[in-house]
């Protein structure tokens, strides 16, 4: 469970920033056009390619869908992680830690995130050291999310989103 919880905090944070809504036909066409432009200009620098890609994403509407998704999902993920961390803070036994994971799964599903925090068939240890390691990782993940949430909420374009993800490190 320790590795599940540690991975969860990082996975939720990363997947929330880089998740993209389903691509439309127009967006796929825009990406093909972008690839053709880059192929037609072999001397284009990496910075020029990056700028062209950001412009194409902004023009295709992909970024607006991505931003809207982040603005909806990140606060929910933060709430689930915070609830799980708060519960685990008081979990001194393996049974209590399992109960926390079950509660977090229920909350996640109620918020339509669909995360399952504890596969039934996986065993884990829950020593004082395990608990401390999990809580340290969760606190770090929550701090990243606290730092990222305002940035995502104010993002208006691809450059803003990229700056938000840079703040995660």
Tally the helices: 7
User: Roughly how much helix do the residues carry, as a percent range?
Assistant: over 70%
Q: Total strand count, please?
A: 0
**String of helices and strands:** HHHHHHH
Radius of gyration: 19 Å
Question: Biggest sheet, in brief?
Answer: none
N-C termini distance? 24 Å
Mean pLDDT: 77
Structural class of the helix and strand makeup? Answer: mainly alpha
Please report which band the strand proportion falls in: under 5%, 5-15%, 15-25%, 25-35%, 35-45% or over 45%: under 5%
As residue ranges, the low-confidence spans are 1-21
Q: How would you sum up the global shape?
A: elongated
How would you describe this structure to a colleague?
By secondary structure, the chain is mostly helical. The protein has a domain of 116 residues. Helices cover 76% and strands 0% of the residues. Helix 2 runs antiparallel to helix 3. It is elongated, with a radius of gyration of 19 Å.
Keywords:
169 residues, 7 helices, 76% helix, elongated, disordered N terminus
Topology summary:
Blueprint: H1 2-18, H2 25-40, H3 46-60, H4 62-89, H5 94-110, H6 128-154, H7 158-166
Helix pairs in contact: 1-4, 1-6, 2-3, 4-5, 4-6, 6-7
Sum this structure up briefly.
The chain contains seven helices and no strands. The chain is mainly alpha-helical and 169 residues long. The protein has a domain at 2-19 and 69-166.
